[in-house]
Amino acid sequence: MQGSDGKLSHNLLALSKVKQYLPYESIHCVADLENRNPLQQDFTSTLGVGKIMTDSEYLQFKTCWNTLKVEKYGSDMTMRDYLGFYNALDVILLSEVHLSFRKLLHEQYKVSPDW
Q1: What's this model's pTM, rounded to 2 decimal places?
Q2: Sequence spans of domains, the chain
Q3: For 81-103, what is each residue's pLDDT tens digit?
């Protein structure tokens, strides 16, 4: 993961190895992506039967948020910037799963899912 200077950031790399959180249900329109200070109550989820984010989960989110502000986006960071980071983590995870699946199929059955 690269910082704002284009160099490898060990702090950002460490963030990519820990579960991150996104307040899905508080984003209703594009204007909501301009939020610069997501609050803990923004993370309430009806999918988790009204689950409210715990203090430790919010602390993890704030640690990630503050690290991204310092290392990558600067003090003007918004939820839009965070969403880009969050989505990149999903893409990296999906590609890792695909590579593992591809390797397994090749080793076990000598076929590739890429055709």
Answers
A1: 0.84
A2: 10-85
A3: 999 999 999 999 899 999 999 99
